[in-house]
Each structure stands twice: as structure tokens, then as C-alpha cells.
User: Fold these one by one.
Assistant:
Number 1:
Amino acid sequence: MTNTIVSSGQTSSGLTLNSGDFLTVLAGGTANATDVNSGTDNVFGTVSGTVIHAGQEFVSSGGRASGTVVSFGGAQILLAGGLTTGTVISGGFEGVSGGVASGTIISFGGMAVSSGGTASGATIGSGGVLQVFAGGAASATTISAGGLQYVFSGGIDAGGTILGQRQVWAGGVASGTQIGAGGIDYVYGAASNTTIGSGGSEIVQSGGTLSGAIVNGGFLEISSGAHASGGVAFTALGGTVRLDDSQHLDAGLIISGLTPTAGAIDFGDIGFTSGATSAAWTQAGTSGTLTLTSGALQASVTLFGSYLAANFKMQSDGNGGTLGECQEYCVREFRG
């Protein structure tokens, strides 16, 4: 067992730590290319190119670690006041209990951000998992195909890109998300200002809330028991907004951008009955209300724009539901 101390002004290069060995890099000290087989690396100064196998690296206040590779059985722990840049997690684990982790790549393994910690610009690869706990924050995260992110109660995620899967649990908050092809976002907490691209999906589950979204060719589902407010806008690429409980929508929801070639509204809880399903339109200034009636069932949704009742024509979609279309504007309805 050895205990190596690198003091201010000193440099260590190529040191190997085995079981029971300790390396302490004090403020002003530098260690390069340390191989941590099963020992412990305590960083108060600056280290680069560390490879952690079955050992641990603790980056404390004032410590800086760059280019660390964390393999199976290894762990990097970032504490308050510390900074890591460009860590690569390859089967190991990074715990961010304070400080800032910048540009972490989770190729396979896990990363957890807890109170006081921030993960900025992380990339989650296939088989990688990023967890954001209460008091923790993530920003500009990229979730690649096969990657997974959890935002738990009290956690915050901002400006992320989803090509894999994210789950925002009750009490968690996500904002400014971009969802691309193959990406899916399950929201049990709160989401705002999401942009859903072609091939992407956001599902707002019961108890979840949505405040503003852009549907850019993708799919947005507001489940029964969920709440949606603010504007939901279709772009020229269209897409679908599915309303699983269209009979009990929040009054603050306004849908815009519905055109002949862009956008569809799926009334998931009202099936089509020939002779009984109809659409009506009530204009009120720059917006109005589309009311769908089928027997005793009725749903109303506010649309921004000018329409006429004759614009909305309901017919069977050939798939157990209803296709509503018109000469100028289209609405789709499917049996839930």
C-alpha cells in the first residue's frame, strides 16, 4: 500500500494505483495518465487522462479532472466546487454530488446527478443511463438511440435532445426539449416548450402537465388525467395531436397551424358513428371553437385561425375510427 501526495508545483505522470494505494493531488499539483486499478485518487488540483478500472476518483472543491475514462467497476465522484470535463463512462459510474460535469459521454454505464450537481452537455449512448435527482440539474443533454434519462422529483432538465427515451417523473421538470426521429418522452411531471420532430413522440401521462409545444411532424399525446395549457402549434411538417380525453380539455389549450397539408387532431375518446358524428365551428375574433358531437358525446377544442363549419367533414378512416377532413382544413378522429 502506497500513499502518494502531489503538492503544489509538482507533477505526477503515469502512476499506477493498486489495491489500497492512494494518490492525493493537492491544489496546484498535477497528475497525468494515472492508471487506477483498484486504489483511490483524490483530486484537489488538476488531473488529466486518468483511467479508472476498479478504483475511485474523488474530485473535490477546486479540483479539475479532464479526459477521465471510467471502466467497469470504476467510479468518478464529483463533489461541490469540483469540475470534470470530457469524462467517458465505459461501463463505470459517475456520481455528481456537487460541482459541474461538462461534456460527459456515457457510452455504457451510468451517471447520477444529485442535489447541487449539474451535468452540462452530456451524451447518453446506447446502454447508457443518466438520472437526475432532487436538486440536480441537466442541460443540453443528448439522448442517443438506446440511451435513457430519468428526471425524478425535484430534478430539472433543460434544452435536451431526445433520440432515445426520457422519463420525467412526478415533480420533475423539463423545458425546451427537442425530440427527433425515434425519440420518445414520457411526462408524468411537467414539460414546457417541447418541439416534436418527425418520428418523435411526447406522451403526457395522467398527472403530467404540458405548457406549450411545437409539433414539427411528430406525435403529441395528452393522456386522460393529464393537463395541457398554452399554445400547441403545428409547423408546415404537420404531425398529430392525440387527445385521449377530449371531452374534458383544459380551457387554456389553444391549437394553431392546422392547414390543408399540415396537422391532425385525434379525438381518441370519441368514436365515429355514421349519421351521429358531426363537427361545428364557432368563430370568435382571431380564434374559435371546434365542437365534435357523436350521440351523447361532445368535445370542444380551441383553434387559432379562421374556419367555417363546412371545412370540417367527418367520415370513417377505415381503421375503426373517423377521418375528418375538408376542402381547406383537416381534423382526424380515431376511436380510443
Number 2:
Amino acid sequence: MSGRQNRIGGSVGLEIDALWAALDSQKLLCGVNQRLRQTDRGVYLEVQTCCDEIALGGEVATGSCCDAASGACTVTSAEGCLAGVFTAGAVCEPNPCAQPPPPPVDELWRCCRVVDNCHLPPPGCFTPDCGTVCELKTAAECAAIAGAFYVGQLCADGIGTPCDLGACCLGGSCSMTTAAGCAGVFHAGRACVGGCAVDCSLPPPPPAVGRCCLPSGACSISEEGACLVSGGAWVEGGDCVSPCPQPPATGACCIAATGACSEGTQAACDVLGGTWTQGGACQPNPCPQPPPVGRCCRLDGGNCQNETEAQCLANAGVWFWYADGNCQAGPACPTMGACCDGLGGCFQSVFGDCPPAPGGQSRWNAFLECGALPNCDLGCCNTGGVTATTLQAECAFPGNWTAGACAPAAPTGACCLSGVCTDSQTEAACVAQAGATWQGAGTTCAGVTCPQPPAPTGKCCSGMICVGDGMTQAACDFYYGQWYQGQSCNGGMC
């Protein structure tokens, strides 16, 4: 058990609250025995706390951790004993660890000790000169200065450099170990005894918090380090009741000449001569892009101008664009001409960009402008009753070409004749056949059933006797007669 007395005098509540706040900040959960007693100097509160600190998540089991190389013992948890041998519940006084064989008295090896040159005017150590240092010592020399001796090891970074040694607070107790071997709170370069010793009996006070004004103008309550990392301005103990200074509004600034976008304030955008949109961003670029300038080839085959596409088309040219598309860098303009598009329209192009007619005829006319080319008009080519919309030059003999679109073709459908169906027949062509019936526009034989004609009749003879007239072959077969299609009995005799 560890005891601690607090003079409470006339501020009993403040001292008790401070103690409990300190305990609660480390999330300690242990039994506390309080006993008030009256003395001639005032009222004291004696607080007895349990030796073991128990975290809210469960008890932290400790024990001894033996370093096989040095024989050193450290009180830590099983998780903190990374490279040693852990014994749960064991302590280090006396040292239970197996000791390595003593080195020769004159061998110099790594000795880590704590340098504790601390000035102690009241109320405590205010100008510490504390730390750790690595030296080469014999075992006896290292023990004499309370150092940690490591047989077979040297100072990795050189003599006089800091060692990874410090005070480890765990469960209210203090032990000297390395950062890797400490399962509690490690204090690099600090000692468990001396002027600059770490007091592990009580949890360290919580870090100070205060008002943090972020660059965005938002306010938060945080520690100083977290605030500074975020680029904020920190005031200890401050609050967020009053708002933080707000940064000037930013937005997207569009430069009309280049289409470039930059984010900043309106004042900065005005300096650039741009158009500013509050709250806008440049990803993706919202700025209107200027039309690209490319090579415009005119009809004379050699007249090249650096123009936008709209300017080029207005001048009856053909526009080309690529990364270095200008008249100085590109090749000479090819021969230009008028191309009939087969839809009644015309456009300027080079020969290779003018698609031919379905029959392979060229629709390109060199050195001509579309306005001087009348034969791009479409008309109707009638060849033996079959019509098609073509250019006049593409209406092959003996076709008859007339300007204007062809009349719509008559609808087609299925045609039934004597029980047989024929597809793609116009109504006129179908009914021109005697006995045929047209099934309607858009019908197909796959979707209709043509009515079958009646079975043929004739006479049925049994020897010389006529069994009957107008009988089908199936009816005559029933009488085992001889059937003669289309014939009739002559006076009842065959």
C-alpha cells in the first residue's frame, strides 16, 4: 500500500477534487480508504490507495522480466517483456534473474547511466540537466555509478551519446528500462531517484487544453500540440463562445483569354482580370475554354490560315487541329473540293475525307465550292418500278431520275393463295391473282395460317357399279372403291 497525505485546511473540497480528478484522468479503479483526523495544526485527509492500478478495461498483470544478456530485471507486463523471460507476479527485489558470467575485471563494455545534475530551489527542479549517456566502463565502474552494464555491447552511436534508457511508470512503481521494455509510461532520460526523478505515485496531470482557431475560422477545444499541427492559433484555457476570425471568402477565378482557373480571393482575381465565383473550385476546371486555333485550308490548295474552326467554316475552308496545328509547323494544305454527302448536303473536304457512293462512284469535286455545285441535290431514280433516292449522276440507265424524294413504297404483307403463303406482297400484287387473299400490311407467313382449299371430288366405282358421285377419295376408300377425280357416274354405271 502507498500512503499520501493532503493538507486540506479550509479547502477540503478543492484538494479532494484535485486528487480524484488526477486519479480519474488515468482511469484508475481501486479501493480508497479515507480517514479524517484532527491535529493541532489543522485537518488532514489521509488517503490510502491500493498498490496495483487497475485500468477500466481490466487488471494489468505485472511481473519480472529478465534480460538474459545482462541479467537485468524489470517489473513490467507480459506484453512489455519483448525479448526477456517473464514471470507473472514476481518482483525485482531481490533480483531473481540469472546473471551472466562476470567479465574480466578489465574489460570495457557498454555502460548506460543517468546524468542527474538538477538544481533544486523551491518548489522543485526548474533547470534540469538530466539525461542518459553511454560510456565504456568495467563492470565494477558501471556498478559504482549505478549504470546498466551490457556485456559484449559497445556504444552504437559513440561514447557520450544518449542511451535508450529512462524511467518507466507502471502500477505506481518506477523502474529503469528502455522504451521498448516499458509497458507503462516511459520518460526518456529520466531516473527513478535523484533530483530529476519521475514521481510515479500519482498519474501525471492531464495536458492543458484551450481555444484553437483553425485557418478555416472554425473553433475547437484541443491541446496546444494538436492545434499547432493543424495550423491553428491556440490560447490556453480559452473557449469557443466568441467566434474565431473568419478568413476571406475564396472561390474560382476564370481567365477568359486562356481558360485557366485559380482558387483565391476576389481581390486576387480582380488583379488578374478574371471572373470570380464565390465558393467555386478548380477541380474539375469550370472555366469556359477558348476555341482552339488550327490550320484552315482554303480551296486554292495553298492558302493556309491560322483560324478557329468557326472562322474557317465561315470562309469555306477545311479546318485541321492538332497539338502544333498551325500553318507554319504543318505540311502544305492538300487540294480541297466539294463533297456531296449523299443526303442532299455538301461540305468542303480533301479527296480522302469524301465517302463514295454505295456503287463506288466518287462524290468529290476538286477546287469547287459547295455553293457552285448543283448536282448534290437528291431525286428519285425509278428502274423498272423499283425506286431509290440518289444523286442524279448515280441513277444508272435505264433508270428515270426525277427531282425530289421518291413516293413512299406501298406496304407489303403476307398473301395466301390455294393454301400457300407468300411474303412481302403488296395488296395490289396479291389480289391480282385469282383466289388470293392479302393478310394485311406488315404481316408475315410466320404469323398467319392460310385457309386450305376443299378436297377434290369425283365418282367412286365398285366394279361396274357406281357407288356415288361427288365423293372425295377418302370417302371412296371407305367403300373399297376405285376413285376417279372430276368424273361423274353415267346412269349409275361405271
Number 3:
Amino acid sequence: MRSAGLRDEPSDIDEECRSLVKKLGEAGWLQYCVSDEGGVLDVRSLALIRETLARHSGLADFAFAMQGLGSGTISLFGSEEQKAAYLPAVARGEKIAAFALTEPSSGSDVASIETSADEQGREFVINGTKTFMSNGGIADFYIVFARTGEAPGAKGISAFVVDRSTPGLSDDRRIEVIAPHPMAELRFENARLPKTALVGVQGKGFAQAMATLDVFRTTVGAAALGFAKRALQEATRRTQERMLGGTKLSDDAITQSKLAEMIVDIEASALLVYRAAWLRDVKGRSNKPRSGSRETLCDRGCTDGHRQGSAALWRARCNRWPSRGKPLPGDPRAPDLRRRFRGAEDHHRPSAPQGMRVMGAFSKGYTVRFAHCHPAGIADYPRLLELCDAATPRTRAC
């Protein structure tokens, strides 16, 4: 018997993911995943949508995010022909995208990838393996990063758009993970691509991958924020229902203090995440720390720190009550998905000097301006809430 308050997991994750992509496309939300005519992606809109979806369904957030990440390199660096061939279909939910970067021997160390793309006449021949590919097995096309050999390390990597139907590409080896979502290993055995499959400039794939990830990095924080808000909602509901010693758990002073801490962390995270998005959109600043720039260090340190803090807080406090090994509503296993999306925690954690600068900035009255964060292009935001209610399985009654 299932524990009260648990969601029913879809029996077919692949089909559920395809359905979510279709619904998001039909409702017009996937248009935010592709660039406008100027090649720009609005990070604030992406963040708001991801926060809302994550609060209702981790799989819906995943489906939305992967449409953006999987097509992002084309949005930023693709030719007009590539944009016309793929982006409109991505925005309508007719094509599912995937971002193929990770390999068995290289994760965060992108410069050490081994998949090769040998130039032979008018073609590139790809050989190698990609692993932990989100949307693997259901994607209609993959953005694949392979070594073309212009130079060692990061300077010898290029990006290619590879249709799933390409001979020599196999994506049938599926990977089971704790937070259910489509994932597979990709194997390339003499997969031949026309030169028109090259995305952007040959040998610039590393920079393209980093630029694509940089756009979506802030939205990962927004998704964690949505998870944390759902956790607070569920924790609060639980304390109001749970009787302890003849009184509600919510009347206990220690419980009230813990909930208050959660609220403070969530509010701080929201301000930091959306300020980072505003800086990206309005000021054109990336998430890379710059020498001598206290503001950028503060943004990265605080956003990363509160993202991890909120996720940890959520797992610790919402898993405190028995659930027979099953997740509470909203799927608390989803932070594990966020962590895989970003890479190893230690790789992204701010260094000690960065943390000191962060604290120094706040002690000197560093302020966060949230009023400028709301983008004009998402005025129909209430429709997203309606879509979430329609697309998300209902919670069982207690």
C-alpha cells in the first residue's frame, strides 16, 4: 500500500516526458527555450518557468529544461539553416532535443573528451561513447561534442547536430536513475555526418558548450528554488496535521523555528537567483568569476551556496517523516537530477576566498534588487500555473 500523500509515478516515463514536451509546446512555453531573432535567450523567463514547473513536477521541469539546453548551442551558434530546421520544431514540442557532452572518462573535465570526429572529404566520421545523456533514447536530435584535433585539450573540440536516425548512432542502452527520467548511453560507430552538421566554427566546441551551460546555470538555481518552495509547503502542511502530545506539531516552538529558517533561506535564494538572471539579461554578465569583480563573485558564491543549501534543507527536513522509502509530493529525489545536470558539487563550489568576499560584501550593505527581475515577455504567466495543474498527477488524499 502506498504511503498517503505520494504521487503515482507514470508507468512509462518516456511517454510521459514526450507528453509533457508536447503540452508545453502547444501552450507556447517552449518558445522561451529558443533564441529570438537576435540570438538571445531570456534567462529571467527561463528561471520563472523552471521554478514554477519544479514546484509542481520535477519531470515537467526536466522536459522544459532539456528542450532549452539541447537546442541552446544551435540558438547561440547555429547557422540560419540549422536554426530554421530545428528551433521552430523544438518550440512547438515536435522535436525533442538533447545535449551530449559527458563521457565515461570525462564529466566536468570537458577538455578531456575522447569522442572523435575525423574529417574525411565532405564528411565527418564520429566514433566514441557518451553517457548519462538526459533525453537519451527519446531525443530526435543530439548536440554532440567531439574532438576534431585542431589542437590538444579544449581547443580541439567541435559541436555537431546529429539526428537520431543517423546510421552508426545507437541510443538503446538505457540508464536507470533514482529520479526517473529518460537517460541513455550513446555509441557512435563510424557515424557519418555532412559538413553542414557542424555547429558554428570548427574547433570552438568547448567555448560553445560553456556558453550554453552558462545561460542555463542560473535556471538550475530557479528549479531548486521551486523544489524548496514545494518542500516548505509540504512540511508546513505536515506540521499542521501531525498531532504530538495532544497538540499540533506546528505549535511547537522548535518546529516553528525550523520552518522560519526554511523561509529565510528560500527568500534569500529567490533574491540571489533572480538577481543573477537580471545581471545576465540586462548587464550581459556571465556566471564566471572575474578578477577584481566583487559583484560577480558574490553572485556566483551566493547562488551556488543557496542552491545547494535549499536542496539539502529540502531533503533533510522533508524526508524526516516516514514515507516507506518513497518520495514525498514533488519528488525530493529530483535534487539528485539537478546535481547531475550541473556536475560534481566540489567542482562548482566557491573557493574559500570567494566565500570571504561574499560575506564581506553583505557586511558592507550589499543589496539585492528584485524589482527589475520580472521580464515583460512573460505577462501570461498565470497560464503556466493552469498548465501545471492540468499536466501534473494529483496528490493522493491523506
Number 4:
Amino acid sequence: MLKQNNIEGLITALKDLDGQIRQDAEEAIRELNPVHVAEWFLLKYHGEQTQDYIPVDEIGEVLNIWNGKLAALFNQRLQHDDPTIREGAVYFLGEMQAEKSITALTDMLRDEDNKVQNAAVHALSKIGQSALQSLLDILLDDQERLEVRQLSARAIGEIADARAVDPILSLLKTVDEETLMIDLVVALGKIGEKQAVDNLVAIFNDKEASPFLISSSAWSLGRIEDPTTVKHLLKAFHSPIDIVSMSAARALGKIRSKEATEELVHYYISTSKRFHELTSQSKKLQTLKVRALRTIKVIGLPAAKALVNSLEANQNDCSQSVIEDILFALKEISGQDFGNDVKGWLHWVNQRNDDLSI
């Protein structure tokens, strides 16, 4: 018979291969004093290290054995003087997906402690769609603190419910605070609805927008993966502002269009040529070459096909250094190594043609 005072042992036993041991563990847990269990969880809570002593997928199962009794206890701890106790209570309410605690958890977005606030974002996103309206009410309240509205936007993004798109798009037309705009734009990317594309492109092309807002829009366009945005992203890829160029590169890598692939492979090779033609090699060109390589690596095997075609077309016109750059990119992307054997690379491409198409 399992000992009732060994909470950690009982939690482990819930996943035992022996069905009788699992049943005995659940019965023993039900007989424990919920107050003691709540205190044990809070005592053990160490933020992200929680999974070190309780596997994350078991927390909700264990906590819900008491059918809401623990939720009431954790709700009481939300007012504790110790922010670590508040943070733990918020975290576990989220793992329990305690819908009755939504109002209390949204209020924790206003907590004075940053870790408690972030735990509230996590908890509300775990509860999901049931928390959406409460979060939207906070987000759309222009009398609410900016920081709290930002946290609400982040939770909404994690919930990723399409019903939030219209309110966010409407808010973007009126809000002036750039930090909130960035969180709204990122939320649209996480929700992933193509309905948001036109607004994101408008921000993306706004000459008054900051590089941080533009890069956030690029990130979201990459998440939505709409091929109609490629031309805008390619333009941004050539931006002299690093954060904009890098964000556009990542977005293009995710969208993986034929147009983007060919353009990026061409850019990689032309940059390699310029780099090796200089007597004093440019650090800037090296950075651009590496950035282009990273992007085509994200595109993956379709980029390998374009590289092989370029290798065949350029083998008599390029320096050995440029050829070596092309071969290096091919090896990185494909995991193959046919050396300088162009026919070997062409044969491999023809064999894998279906895998290499976009």
C-alpha cells in the first residue's frame, strides 16, 4: 500500500505501468489534506524548474483530483505577501485551467511583481478561449495601464483565437504607443489569420514606423506564411537596417516561395562574388553572405535545387572561392557531399525532385 504522506512518490506512481499502483496512488491522493498538498506545491514551486520535480503534463491531472478544492486554496494565496507564493498560485491555477479563477488571474496582470505578471499571462493562455473576452476587455480599455494592456495582448496571442483579430486590427488604427503596437502585431502573427496580412503589410511599408515595429510585422508575416507578401519581404531583406533585414530573412525562410528561394540563392552567390573580388574583404559583405545562407537553410531542400542549378550555370564563370561557397551551402542544406562533382549533385537533385519542389 502506498504511503499517503509521500506526495512526490504518489505523483510518480500515477504514471506507473502497473494499473493497480496507479489506482492506489489516485485513491491515496484523494485522501490527502488539500491544504497540505497546496502548501507542498507552493513550497516546491521554482518557476521554470517546476518540471524538474513534477512532469508538466501531470500537474493538471494531479491538481484536479480534488475537484476544485485546491483552486480555492490557490486563489487565497494570490493575495500572499510573498511574490513567489503568488507566482506559484497563479502558475498552478493555469495548469488546472481553473476557469472560475479568470477574474482573479486577469487581476494578477496588475501585480507589482514582473514574474507574477508573466505567470498570469501563462496561466490565462493555458485556460484559453474562456479567458479571451476578459483579456480583450483589458486590452481595449484605454484607461488601463499600458503595461497591463501589453500583457493582455501577449496572452491573447498565446491563445491564438481568430475572434481576437478584428478587435486587434481596430485598435491598431487608433493606438499610438509603439510598445503596445508591437505586442498587437506579434499577437496577430501568433493567431495566424490571413485577414491580418493587409494591415501588417501597411505597417511594414510605413516610412514612419520604427525598425522594431517593422521587424515585428515581418516576423508576423512569416508566421502567417502568405506568399503574396514575398515581394514586400524581399524589399525589406535588402534594408540597411540589420533588425529589419534579419526579420525579413526569417520570414522568407518560413514562407519558402519559389520567387524568394531563387532571389535569395542569387543574392547569396552575388554577395559571395563581391566578397571574394575585394582585395580587402568586407565584414559587411561577409555578414550579408552569412545572413543569406541562414535564410536559404531555413527554406531547406528546395533551396538546394536552386543552388545546384546555379552551380551548373556558374561553374565556368565563378572563381574557385565562390564555387566553394556554393558547395558549402549545398552540404549544409542537403547533408550530402558530392564535392566538386556537378553531375553528382544534378543526379541527386533529379532523384529527389519531388522533395525539392515548392
